[in-house]
């Protein structure tokens, strides 16, 4: 599926959170603006927002990752077209023409075609 950007988007997180399936992470508060996400911290000290649905809560304020995840956001400009791969919690995993990939907020996108990749 293709989309065009209504406005530009720039990541505010230069060192995005990453974790792997089976990894144990510290589970923090949910995001008020994006309730499908919670603040997560790894044992390595990396922190960021992660999809709650992709985490299995444990007893002690920690959670087990159910799948691999990267919080990398994609820097894109107004009018730029991107290929959309999958959506979660109001964000699309997107790909620019140069092959760079990352999350873009759905509210910034205008869908151009409906067939998903």
What overall geometry do the principal axes of the alpha carbons give?
elongated
Q: Structural class, judged by helices and strands?
A: mainly beta
Radius of gyration (CA) equals 15 Å
Binned, the helix content reads under 10%
Strand order within the widest beta sheet? 11-10-9-1-12
- Poorly predicted runs: none
Report the average pLDDT across residues. 94
Tally the beta strands: 12
Strand content: over 45%
- How far apart the termini lie comes to 6 Å
Largest sheet: 5 strands, antiparallel
Q: Provide a count of the helices.
A: 0
SSE series: EEEEEEEEEEEE
Q: How many separate structural domains?
A: 2
Organism: Stenotrophomonas humi
Domain SH3: 58-114
InterPro entries: SH3-like_dom_sf (IPR036028), SH3_domain (IPR001452), UCP034961_SH3_2 (IPR014593)
Keywords: SH3 domain
Structure, described:
The structure is a single chain. This protein is mainly beta. It folds into 2 domains: about 1-10 and about 70-110, SH3 type barrels (Roll); about 20-70. Helix content is about 0%, strand content about 45%. The protein contains no helices and 12 strands. It has strands at about 1-5, 20, 25-30, 35-40, 45-50, 55, 60-65, 70, 80-90, 90-95, 100-105, 110. A 5-stranded antiparallel sheet has the order 11-10-9-1-12, with no helix packed on it. Strands 5-4-3-7-6 form a 5-stranded antiparallel sheet, with no helix packed on it. Strands 2-8 form a two-stranded antiparallel sheet. A hairpin with a 4-residue loop joins strand 6 (about 55) and strand 7. The protein is elongated. It starts with a strand and ends in a 6-residue tail after the last strand. The model has no long low-confidence stretch (mean pLDDT about 95). Keywords: SH3 domain. It comes from Stenotrophomonas humi.
């Amino acid at each position: 599926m293709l989309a065009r950007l209504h406005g530009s988007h720039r990541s505010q997180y230069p060192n995005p959170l990453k974790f792997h399936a089976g990894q144990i992470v510290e589970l923090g508060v949910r995001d008020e603006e994006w309730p499908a996400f919670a603040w997560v911290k790894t044992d390595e000290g990396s922190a960021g927002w992660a999809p709650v649905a992709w985490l299995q809560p444990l007893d002690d304020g920690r959670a087990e990752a159910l799948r691999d995840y990267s919080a990398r956001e994609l820097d894109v400009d107004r009018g730029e077209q991107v290929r959309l791969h999958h959506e979660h919690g109001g964000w699309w995993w997107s790909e620019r023409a140069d092959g760079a990939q990352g999350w873009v907020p759905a509210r910034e996108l205008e869908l151009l075609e409906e067939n998903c990749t």
